[in-house]
């Protein structure tokens, strides 16, 4: 192994590419930890976890400690008795099923949709959604155990499902996706009690771990697909502006939940600017963390500069 | 935006092979999604039944509309001061995440300001309901006349006493007790024009298993055929019989009585009839 790292000094053996050459298991991000230190190499991950758990904590303060800052759950909530927030995809299903909701719910959905339309829909996936903790855990374990194979469905499955669930809502007259939606099952479960819904969440974990790498969030979840549509005009974007420094270690591809979005920006495929504009990018910042060369940076969609 | 589109294989126009691969992937995606959607749809249709003991909150839309309107947020649950309402969990056999209560466990206290309805952001709980007395969550039914203590001739009356709409929603109907033949029975009787389905009666029934239960309307009530008419109602509405007054024939042996009076005095023995067998304790028979 030492000989390998000597011959390929540019790509360390812990990286995806180095490990592939050496025939050992990759530890994407290890080089970044060495170069930048543990905290900087986990900055965005820690911030995201703080956001995810913080939002969950706001919902739990009420039922656990009687501090009612936020009531309800991600489906619909009321903050400090004045701010209504409602999941717009849920409300669309309700409308498809033939119900026109009260103005509180419509206003709540409008606020949520406007926020994500402006800043980026899939911020929901990486900074809010509780299932992200589950699928991230599955992806991490899959990497650590070196589990390969399984069958990943097409990444367009989620967009079909997004539309089909609206159609199914219209046909059955009920909120079709809510019969199984792991996002609300998990969030509601934590706040109001699980029953057997933990089984659905466990199913998602096992699916991602054994059957399909990043299968759920990257290929199936229609909620993520809906927020992906809202992500088309995202203000917050990641840029690979120092792509000239890239040493092809492939670590960013290994940790990115939507690896297909990186290539156009990093390798200038079918675009010349280094901005990741694909609607599937969740702005999670993992690529920023694991890159030892600091190629990536969080910025706005208008910043096409390259350094 | 156009550059972004280019990252998708669809616009990889140069190669027909890429397009074919893309179309194949799309077909696979559509097929997979259809299977999943079908599964979810079938499961949803299957799982939208509701057990008879699960009662929806006041103001809830009829069940099919309710399932389309309720986003399962639990805001109604949070604003119920008596912790009556509960969001269904997977395995409760009520559409997962929707609010319900069971009268036997925690009944609805019929809050005058109906906070649960006010809290609902979607209209699954209808704000047209402003008078809790007009709520129709379900209908109480004295379902077991064999164990109800009042039907056995005792004076339990608990369901009657606890009813928030006492003497309107539930009354005690005086009936002769044929078993003792000398006592009365006071039968708890529910009236659908006033019962809100709050479940207080079911909750407080003293039996180990309540003899009075609140049921969803669809289970609690029968339905008369559209064309049925009640003669006495029609007669009163019309101010007289629609088919002319009926012939009143004399009843032999009762000619001195008013029409319809067939009462028999105690100890009365019909002429030319054998003394009847003693019936009850108070039959007047002496050894
Ligand atoms: S894809 Fe779905 S489950 Fe995954 S993070 Fe986004 S909303 Fe949550
Ligand atoms: S490109 Fe970077 S920010 Fe976007 S999803 Fe992948 S890892 Fe996250
Ligand atoms: S009326 Fe009052 S007690 Fe009954 S469900 Fe509503 S909030 Fe709860
Ligand atoms: S507040 Fe309304 S939408 Fe929310 S759970 Fe209750 S009935 Fe459903
Ligand atoms: S459910 Fe029972 S207690 Fe409630 S109104 Fe009806 S009869 Fe009265």
From TrEMBL, chain A:
Pfam families: Fer4_5, Fer4_7
Keyword annotations: 4Fe-4S, Electron transport, Iron, Iron-sulfur, Membrane, Metal-binding, Repeat, Transmembrane, Transmembrane helix, Transport
Domain spans labelled 4Fe-4S ferredoxin-type: 236-267, 273-301
Transmembrane parts of this sequence: 50-70, 111-135, 156-177, 189-210
UniProt entry tagged with the keyword Membrane: yes
Gene Ontology terms for molecular function: 4 iron, 4 sulfur cluster binding; metal ion binding
PROSITE patterns the UniProt entry points to: 4FE4S_FER_1, 4FE4S_FER_2
A single Gene Ontology CC term: plasma membrane
Superkingdom of origin: Bacteria
Protein name: Quinol dehydrogenase ferredoxin subunit NapH
Gene: napH
TrEMBL record, chain B:
SUPFAM superfamilies: 4Fe-4S ferredoxins
CDD domains for the chain: DMSOR_beta_like (cd16373)
GO molecular function, one term: metal ion binding
Top-level taxonomic group: Bacteria
The keyword Transport belongs to this UniProt entry's keyword annotation: yes
InterPro entries: 4Fe4S_Fe-S-bd (IPR017896), 4Fe4S_Fe_S_CS (IPR017900), MauM_NapG (IPR004494), RnfB_subfamily (IPR050294), TAT_signal (IPR006311)
Domain 4Fe-4S ferredoxin-type: 62-90, 97-130, 186-217
Residue ranges crossing the lipid bilayer per the database entry: 26-44
Segments for region (Disordered): 244-287
Gene3D superfamilies linked to this entry: 3.30.70.20
Key words of the record: 4Fe-4S, Electron transport, Iron, Iron-sulfur, Membrane, Metal-binding, Repeat, Transmembrane, Transmembrane helix, Transport
NCBIfam families in the record: mauM_napG, PRK09476.1
Protein name: Ferredoxin-type protein NapG
Organism name: Denitromonas iodatirespirans
């Amino acid at each position: 192994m030492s000989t390998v790292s000597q011959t390929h000094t540019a790509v360390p053996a812990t990286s995806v590419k180095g490990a592939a050459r050496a025939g050992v298991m990759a530890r994407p991000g290890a080089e970044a930890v060495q170069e930048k230190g543990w905290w900087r190499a986990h900055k965005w991950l820690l911030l995201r976890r703080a956001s995810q758990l913080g939002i969950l904590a706001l919902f739990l303060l009420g039922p656990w400690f009687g501090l009612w800052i936020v009531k309800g759950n991600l489906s619909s909530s009321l903050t400090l008795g004045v701010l209504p927030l409602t999941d717009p995809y849920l409300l669309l299903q309700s409308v498809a099923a033939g119900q026109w909701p009260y103005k509180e719910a419509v206003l709540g959905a409008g606020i949520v949709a406007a926020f994500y339309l402006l800043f980026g829909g899939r911020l929901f996936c990486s900074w809010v959604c509780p299932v992200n903790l589950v699928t991230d855990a599955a992806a991490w374990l899959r990497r650590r155990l070196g589990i390969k194979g399984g069958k990943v469905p097409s990444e367009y499955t989620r967009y079909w499902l997004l539309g089909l669930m609206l159609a199914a809502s219209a046909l059955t007259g009920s909120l079709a996706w809510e019969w199984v939606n792991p996002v609300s099952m998990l969030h509601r479960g934590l706040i109001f009690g699980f029953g057997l819904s933990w089984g659905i969440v466990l199913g998602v974990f096992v699916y991602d771990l054994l059957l399909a790498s990043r299968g759920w969030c990257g290929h199936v979840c229609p909620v993520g697909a809906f927020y992906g549509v809202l992500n088309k005009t995202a203000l917050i974007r990641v840029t690979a502006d120092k792509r000239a420094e890239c040493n092809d270690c492939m670590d960013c591809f290994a940790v990115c939940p939507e690896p297909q979005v990186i290539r156009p920006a990093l390798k200038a495929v079918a675009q010349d600017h280094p901005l990741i504009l694909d609607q599937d990018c969740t702005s999670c910042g993992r690529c920023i963390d694991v890159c030892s060369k600091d190629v990536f940076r969080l910025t706005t969609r208008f910043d096409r500069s390259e350094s | 935006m156009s550059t972004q589109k280019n990252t998708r294989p669809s616009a990889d126009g140069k190669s027909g092979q890429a397009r074919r691969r893309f179309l194949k992937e799309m077909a696979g995606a559509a097929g997979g999604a259809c299977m999943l959607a079908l599964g979810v749809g079938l499961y949803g249709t299957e799982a939208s039944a509701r057990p008879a003991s699960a009662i929806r909150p006041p103001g809830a839309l009829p069940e099919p509309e309710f399932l389309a309107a309720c986003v399962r947020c639990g805001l109604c649950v949070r604003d119920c001061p008596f912790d009556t309402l509960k969001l269904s969990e997977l395995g409760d056999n009520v559409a997962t995440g929707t609010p319900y209560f069971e009268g036997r466990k925690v009944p609805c206290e019929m809050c005058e300001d109906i906070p649960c309805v006010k809290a609902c952001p979607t209209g699954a709980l209808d704000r047209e309901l402003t008078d809790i007395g007009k709520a129709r969550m379900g209908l109480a039914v004295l379902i077991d006349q064999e164990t109800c203590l009042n039907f056995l001739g005792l004076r339990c009356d608990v369901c009657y006493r606890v009813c928030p709409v006492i003497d309107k929603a539930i009354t005690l109907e005086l009936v002769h007790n044929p078993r003792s033949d000398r006592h009365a029975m006071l039968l708890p009787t529910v009236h659908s024009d006033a019962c809100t389905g709050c479940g207080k009666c079911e909750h407080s029934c003293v039996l180990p298993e309540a003899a009075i239960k609140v049921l969803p309307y669809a289970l609690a009530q029968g339905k008369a055929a559209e064309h049925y008419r009640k003669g006495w109602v029609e007669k009163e509405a019309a101010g007289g019989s629609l088919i002319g007054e009926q012939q009143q024939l004399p009843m032999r042996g009762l000619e001195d009585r008013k029409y319809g009076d067939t009462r028999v005095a105690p100890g009365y023995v019909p002429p030319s009839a054998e003394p009847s067998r003693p019936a009850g304790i108070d039959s007047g028979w002496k050894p």
